[in-house]
Amino acid sequence: MVKKFLFILLLSISTIASSQIHEAGIFLGGSNYIGDIGPTNYIYPNNVAGGIIYKYNLNPRIALRGTFTYAEISSDDADAKNSGRKQRGLNFTNNIKELAVGIEFSYFEYEISNPEKSQTPYILVEFAAFNYKTVDRETSPNQYEYKNKTSYSIPFGLGYKTKLGESFALGLEIGARYTFTDDLDFNNNAIESLQFGNPNSNDWYVFSGINLVYTFGRPACYNTPKF
Predict the structure, then answer these.
(1) CA distance to 104, 108, 126, 153, 184, per residue, from 175 (Å)
(2) Is the backbone of residue 209 left (phi > 0), alpha (psi -120 to 50) or beta?
(3) In terms of pLDDT, which residue wins out, 57 or 15?
(4) 14/19 Cα distance (integer angstroms)
């Protein structure tokens, strides 16, 4: 009985292992901020973003994924269409280091080893923690001391991926991040000179670009092997 149980257990582990595909690669693209300074375009990449990606395919439609992304964000009232912002003349530059985990849902079944299923649109939902600079205190008029701060965001986006060569896949992706903070642009309600914009509206940032991943592991069949 014990031997039979162990055989079934080992067979189950082997089936699960053979049905997974791992993907690892890089992301390159642009980033932009949406908030109280500068233009309000949702997709306006004006800085470079880059990172690494890992995916664990559960089945042909669902993949778990983790990403680490580094990006600069900046904005300038001089680029705004709003006349009030243009006259105000604020600008800022910050950087973001983001670690995100989530789920990628493919619209069609996706298997890189199957030519008929090697491309599909997808949607992405994640949860992220990110680190950035914020103003700690004003040392003298218009001179500030900064500190690092960690906050959280909910990334969601759209993409399209397709096979590129034997084991590589190329993806185009746009993802917006709703944050739980309003100080990416150094807004600070405790410092009079940094009180601007709408205090009830949190900041956003957006990544858009391409990802190139390498697929490894046994080709996914997602079925119980036949003996």
Answers:
(1) 12, 20, 10, 12, 18
(2) left
(3) 57
(4) 9
CA end-to-end distance (rounded Å), the chain: 21
Higher pLDDT, 162 or 1: 162
Eight-state DSSP code of residue 59: S
CA distances from 53 to 2, 116, 215 (A): 41, 25, 12
pLDDT in tens, 6-41: 444 344 444 444 445 899 999 999 999 999 999 999
Report pTM: 0.84
Residue 42, token pair as written in the block? 């949702």
For residue 7, give the 3-state DSSP assignment.
helix
Which contiguous run of DSSP H or E holds residue 5?
helix 2-18
CB contact at 8 A, 187 and 36: yes
Find tokens 């008929």 and name the residue: 116
DSSP tag of 115:
G
The tens digit of pLDDT for each residue in 173-185 reads 999 999 999 999 9
The encoded tokens of residue 47 equal 């800085």
